[in-house]
Amino acid sequence: MQSQYLRQIQSLDPVTEHSQICHFSTGYEFPWATHRALELALLRTFCIPSVAATLQTTGKFIYHAQSRYDDTGLLVANILYWGYDSPQGAAAIRKMNAIHSRYTISNTDYLYVLSTFIYEPIRWNESFGWRPFCEQERLAFFYFWRAVGERMHMQAIPDTYAAFESFNQRFERQHLRYSEANRQVANAVLKMLTGWFPAIVRPLVRASVYALLDDTLLAALDWPQPTARSRHFVTAALKLRQQLLRWTPPRKQSGFIPEPVVEDGSLSTDPSERNPSAQVTTRSRCPFHQILQRSR
Fold first, then answer.
1. Exposure pattern of 226-255 as b/e (b: 16+ CB <10 Å)?
2. How far apart are CA 9 and CA 243, in angstroms?
3. What's the pTM?
């Protein structure tokens, strides 16, 4: 059945009204899927040695993985929920620019990471979406994140959806390969992800993460090949969820409930590091929290 949000999305122009489209699509139609796709996008960037080396140098993802993950989620939530030119979204982009200014990062690495925010949610949707993205949604992701990239002072951002997708694929062919930094950063994040669950099910969670990755990514992270049974189980579970969600009522509240970005003091969600007046949400921390909700 067609949702009220899809009708609104299809009435909007992805070139000029992409912020509204992304607000509805990520917040109301696909919040859980967006979280999962961006987690996979994060793992994908760890497969680029130059990106992983920068993260290894900072030590943040290795020694403070949960706070770094929460910080990233906080910034992205503010941008998607409010829009990149809103006071909240602009504050999030200023914070990201300030964080990144401490490190030497190539423009092509910036572009690749930006491209994963566009194409990983689209690829997830192609496999596991409860409905396919419409053309307005796919284009809106491109125009939205391209505008964010411009505000982060990235150079030579491809100017069409197809050109940026080609860049993404070409960059991976040229640069996606194993390094020790890849493995260390990804292992720290995997430990964080499995730590959300009781110890008894952590091996199953770890196997499920492996099952979601293709062979190239597994090799780049030096992670084991999943069994055929694991891949079948994970795919079947997500396909079942896909079917069930087609009959659930639309969400009434956005799946992104951002807290304000702290511009003075630490952004970290670790209570020992963060500005004591700031609050954070952990609603999205456990994937099964939203799976068990009635809404999408």
1. beeebbebbeeebeeeeeebeeeeebeebb
2. 22
3. 0.87
